[in-house]
């Protein structure tokens, strides 16, 4: 028996009890005549005490020689602490040790195992197993586990069946790049890892399972960014005999349940916004509505005033940065520099100061009167003390740029509060988006998303205008979930593949099994998938999903702890009927 | 709204209610003046009725034209049924339809969607989405989901944290063959898919997580048998500061909880047996103890009687097949043929009839007296009416052969009852097993399993005799779980790798991260993994794990439904820096 109790549970109620604890030496203070050890395990910290009077000499000397992160087992008596620590549950007691066993020694860790460590990101990733000993990391993993458990309870109670769909599937040309797995038993052929269980969950609906969910790993071989991992986790759901409203209700219910359970928050109906409105009002299909700063379009007002730059543009639009009239000229110059960074790539920024006295001062005073600027300010809902920031250009581009600026200003003004939650449904997405590079339409959601019946007449004449039965759940400016009502008619599905540039043969080769399944009584169905890593992080007030993944990969897709990927043996490749194109280093 | 109710819930309590149901046309009986439809969804079957008197002509004609597996929406009134069906919950009512909408048509399915279908295994796998509509398949998937949910509840309540470990890891030479994934971002390098999260869960223990579990997909690229799939699911668990007894207690608790929840069974302490005893008594390390038929060794009795075949053998051992004295000579010949099949490859079978009158009649009467045979019978616990079946040969081989025969006889005698459950812990496994082919020791469990401290002195002199802190949970003759207390001392781990034939460099390259982690205060830890697919199937009284997997692969590792694996594009291979050795077909 390694322990009678954990390091997080002993209190005054246990005084005089003989106990045994096991854990790590977190800190050791040696005053010569007395030694205190903070013994740490997952559950907390308990103070161990030894002194010259009450402890044997041998034991005392053993204790003094313990190093940080040694694993020890301590037996002793719970006693009341002289100077209590009200910050921890065990702060009223300490253990007067009468034996200490060293279970394992430890080299000096490469960084301190503290809430505020001295270790940088890289070293903590390499020694992730030590990083996990730190409360902030450990608690995030425990939080993730609790959320997963609660999701399952909620969906199970609503008769959803969790079905494990296969990981070794087939590569498809649509969507992101696949990871592939060469097959030993089928020479020259490859499995692919799923980007999502999309087709399988649809087949489960054809199979009559009615309500499916799965918390499941998915894989995308894309270039990585801070918030993207090659393997990530989805809460994947699908329902039969439902309309968009049914699905939104169920998963709004789930989101409310989680916000209530973990944040103690109550919500009425989540607000809804069309994609078109979201783009117009926030320049973004996942607007953060914890704050206003809505876009004001002034194209009609700003053109025709001899200001060439504006006259040439498709859209002129601005926001009112609250109280930012206090910005100095230098501050504004920095903002202009910021929007010109390659990530934003804006050409410029027009500014208008809304002075307290009701006058305006702008970078374009040569072209616009006080009345002109007042009209702008009104469109942007500005008040005295605000600073208008105006951008112009191609509609899609300028909206994206101004949206990035809006988020940046909000960040600076402290408007993105981690303990405030603003959910939002974005609906009525376009079915297709035109891709300039490949010169064809791509599915905005995925090729199985159904068009709105009332827009079906546009599918031949103006496919870009067709709206989809698709919906995203947005939380604090992050898309945490998205889904759609699916096509369940084989002819519409075939037409969709055609729109996406598939020949009939290609569609058959790639998705023949799905279209074949649709011949045998496919029910109306639809679903939704939450990005679980992101949902968990946002729920916990963070936007760094990597922190919520036990063993994340870096931006080159490497696990620096185990040093993967790695070279494999030639014999292994031979067995798989593949060769490497890379000359041996 | 597609439905007000499901097809499984309406009863007399709902009489006169206006309802709408959606589902599949399971059967349609057309009597000319009246039409009955069995409407099916996941939840059950409800009878729909239309007749010439009460239904409009148009509706009546629509109904008559419905085909099997059409998806329809029916509105109507709940009425009492004339001839009630007590076998289904909805058997007291039917729906008098007043409208029917065809939601989707169906081609004639390639097999009947019935509990007893006319479809063979191959066709059902190709159309797995139709197979899932059948109750026996659907119910197995729902059962699996319920068991997973219950496992999670149980472990969550005991403070286990579910942590998702990575799927893209590193290939290791130990164990089975890995599936590998070429890396696009790290040219010439490969990820491997995990055979189990073994090292990661140990790192989580080093990380202080204390109690970990995960229900997780694992992957082995081995030749497949009926009960083996390239991807399978484990309940993977690990605990810190525990001894073997602690772990066995926790997971015996879990097994009892599941047997209670799903089978209503109560168990006392599970029996335990050493590996050595299991081999001696049952010839097998996963004995089915629902029945006796224990081995009786008669080497000492049977040698030295001028029966050459026996005199040359290492072990002579038999079982008493209860009541099988009734077997004809022809029956026995068939049994001899059975043990000579390539799968068993026994050279022969000596038989002894235990006659009702106390006499014996055997195939070796020339060499043995009645007293000799009586002594054999006693060793095998035989009684009058039994048939002794005796085999001889190399100890390991003959035990395996007789074990197979024992199971076969039990199957024939109906002793392997699916509703009877006999759990058993097998303990004290050898640490290592000698592999003739590679002429080196292999880890019997895995290279991280700790030797028993009391056997440590044998590790240099006689490593084959060292026992491990390893344990298997056996249920009805199937290993459903296995685990061990791990090595947590870096020196012992290094010695273990050495025993397994690794050079220090190889050990460092493959497991350096783990041995490095052990430098920083690794706690004592151990764990266990259940084979979830198998556990679920056995709990449900079946041994066919494939039935409990939504989309299984066939014996060539193919998913015949989606036709994977498949060829991929040359550009895809180029991006991954690989080429195929297979010339294009």
TrEMBL record, chains A, B:
The record's subcellular location field reads:
Cytoplasm
Q: Which UniProt keywords apply?
A: Aminoacyl-tRNA synthetase, ATP-binding, Cytoplasm, Ligase, Nucleotide-binding, Protein biosynthesis
Any GO BP:
aspartyl-tRNA aminoacylation
Residues reported to bind ATP: 220-222, 229, 479, 531-534
Return the GO cellular component terms, semicolon-separated.
cytoplasm
Q: Which part of the chain is the Aminoacyl-transfer RNA synthetases class-II family profile domain? A: 144-552
**Which residues does the annotated region (Aspartate) include?**
198-201
Query: Which reaction equation describes what this protein catalyses?
Result: tRNA(Asp) + L-aspartate + ATP = L-aspartyl-tRNA(Asp) + AMP + diphosphate
Which positions in this protein are listed as binding L-aspartate?
174, 220, 445, 486
Q: Which domain of life is it from?
A: Bacteria
**Example of a GO MF term:** ATP binding
EC number of this enzyme: 6.1.1.12
Q: Which HAMAP family match?
A: Asp_tRNA_synth_type1 (MF_00044)
Role according to the record: Catalyzes the attachment of L-aspartate to tRNA(Asp) in a two-step reaction: L-aspartate is first activated by ATP to form Asp-AMP and then transferred to the acceptor end of tRNA(Asp).
How this chain assembles, per its entry, is: Homodimer.
Please report which protein family the annotation says this sequence is part of.
Belongs to the class-II aminoacyl-tRNA synthetase family. Type 1 subfamily.
Q: What is this protein called?
A: Aspartate--tRNA ligase
